[in-house]
Amino acid sequence: MNPTLFLAASLLLAPPTLAVVPVTAAQPVAAKGKPRAKPAARVVKRGQTLRITKGQRHVGNVMVLGGTLVIEDGAEVKGDVSLRQGSNLVVRRGSIHGVVSAKGARSVSLTKAKITGGNIEIEDTSKVIVSESTLQVSGGGLSFDDSSSVQLSDSSFEVTGGSVSFNDSSVVSLDDSKFSVTGGNIQVDGQSKLTLTDSSLTVTGGSVSFEDSTTTVANDSSIQVEGGNFTAGDSSKIETGKSRVTVTGGSVQLSDTSSIVQKESDIDVEGGTVELSDESTMTLEDSSVTVEDGEVKQSPRSKLHKRGKSKVKKRAKKARRKK
After folding, report:
1. What's the pLDDT score for residue 37?
2. pLDDT at 128 over 80
3. Predicted pLDDT at 82
4. What is the CA radius of gyration of the chain?
5. How far is CA 180 from the centre of its chain?
6. Is 235 left (phi over 0), alpha (psi -120 to 50) or beta?
7. What pLDDT does 259 receive?
8. Which of 7, 34, 137, 158 is the least buried, fewest Cβ under 10 Å from its Cβ?
């Protein structure tokens, strides 16, 4: 046989050779200019404790399902933290950069902590204690719902581009703390109770509302609303002692059977009205209401009580001096 033909026939009849490639788990590959995929959430089950100690940094979400998450001095979590039934969160001088949500958690304790993220949601949580801490929410909201108990002392809350709500019989107390909302509202309803002591509540570009049988008590505190209204409806009750409510570019409005009792306190309204409608009641005890560039309106069934040295004053907007 012709050698060339023999070689060609041999190649055609020979079995193919297969290359052996080791099998490995698929790895996420980041395209150029795109961030790598986030790692899977760390899960802390009932009876377990995840402790992030000083100098450590956990990147990724953490889901606590009945266990305990502890973030110690100088440690941080860069991701969302989610607490479910019976879970605990303890942050001592540590930080969380992400969304924090607690639903049915046993306790949340923040001491000299810093939390920055898009939302903070506390629901059906037995006890939340925040001390000497800073909470910053940008582009989201802060909510306390469903009978949560929240105690805040010597702390500051800053919400930008979102709203704050106290709902469903939640009990929230602020002591020597600052609460500010920019570009959003503060809403207290659902038979919740809000107590302020030596604290300030500031809303810029939004309103403060009290509805549905809520109770709000402010002592040695200030409530400031710029570019929005201060309203109370349903049968909500507001009591102030040695405190000041200031509304600029908006109104103070009481409706339904709501009431406000002021003791040695002041209400200042600039560029708006003080309006008592329906069967609402305002009681002044050695207190004053001052309306500049606005008016006082009162419906026939509403009541305005003035006791002691109390006064209701209206004055025109101060004219600028001519040069």
Report:
1. 60
2. yes
3. 96
4. 30
5. 10
6. alpha
7. 98
8. 34
